[in-house]
UniProtKB/TrEMBL annotation:
Native species: Listeria rustica
UniProt protein name: Sugar phosphate isomerase/epimerase
InterPro entries per record: IolE/XylAMocC-like (IPR050312), Xyl_isomerase-like_sf (IPR036237), Xyl_isomerase-like_TIM-brl (IPR013022)
Keyword presence, RNA-binding: no
GO MF entries: isomerase activity
Domain Xylose isomerase-like TIM barrel: residue ranges: 57-271
Keyword terms: Isomerase
Length: 276
């Protein structure tokens, strides 16, 4: 048995927390990955804005609809080249870690950024120097997680400094903490030439550092012009049954977050998932 979740911002035309709770409930999902700034762009949610009352309000209102905030998102460019901007972003993330418990979240999630101000693919992300710099930043964030008893969920991806299973394993070795977790998104780690090995990749991830995997993202895809393009779940080439079977074997009751499956597609996907 797994706990399926959605990203709050995969529901569109959300005008209030009440909307978010109702539409999540109607989709048949009880768990959410919440990105405040994306779901509610007009609500101040920066470093000085996030607070215990805000967390309690979101937690209480969503609970009225049987919805739990499993993961609090704070996706930042943690290695932003402008150091003043980087510090501002890191402090925002740390504020989210400090307040995540009031939202009822189990972890705060982020990817590992880019050497450019705007996150994009560049081989400059893959140097040893950038890897070590990323490790130092994650070590800082994990220390804040330790202080507040909150898991830091790091999501590897091909465009980022932590871009492979090998780099992820090295990160875990260098940041030795129970409060470092890995959010595994298999689709973020495959390319057109490697998509056929997707199930093997998931198996290898659990064999290598399964004790650190704190959630999984499930994102379907098709190949378009030699690139991996996200599509709603069950509309592409991800091998859902085999991947879910692997997750269940290693991490029963784990959070599995549907990603890039939006609006009406969510209910359709959940119906199929719960009858598999």
């Amino acid at each position: 048995m797994l706990q399926f979740a959605i990203r709050g911002h995969d529901l569109t035309n959300i005008n209030s927390i009440e909307d978010l709770g109702i539409k999540t409930q109607l989709s048949g999902v009880r768990n959410m990955q919440l990105a405040l700034g994306i779901s509610f762009p007009n609500m101040p949610s920066d470093t000085s804005n996030i607070n215990p009352g805000m967390g309690n309000y979101f937690k209480t209102r969503l609970a009225e609809h049987g919805v739990n905030i499993a993961i609090l998102s704070c996706y930042i460019n943690m290695i932003h080249p402008d150091l003043a901007t980087r510090e501002r972003l890191l402090r925002k993330f740390e504020a989210y870690v400090k307040n995540a418990n009031y939202f009822g979240a189990s972890m705060v999630a982020t990817e590992t950024g880019c050497v450019f101000p705007e996150i994009s693919y560049t081989t400059e992300n893959f140097t040893e120097e950038v890897f070590q710099e990323t490790v130092q930043v994650i070590r800082r964030l994990v220390a804040v997680g330790e202080k507040h008893g909150m898991m830091i969920g790091i999501e590897p991806g091909l465009n980022h400094p932590i871009h492979s299973l090998e780099k992820t394993a090295r990160l875990i070795e260098l940041v030795d903490s129970d409060f470092l977790g890995i959010i595994l998104d298999p689709t973020n780690l495959i390319a057109a030439e490697s998509y056929a090995n997707q199930v093997k990749l998931v198996e290898q991830a659990f064999e290598s550092f399964g004790d650190k995997i704190c959630a999984v993202h499930l994102k379907d895809f098709v190949l378009e012009n030699g690139a991996v393009k996200p599509v709603p779940l069950f509309e592409g080439q991800i091998r859902v049954n085999e991947i879910l079977s692997t997750i269940s074997r290693y991490k029963p009751h784990s959070f599995v977050v549907l990603e890039e499956t939006k609006d009406a597609w969510i209910g359709k996907a959940v119906q199929r998932l719960t009858t598999m």
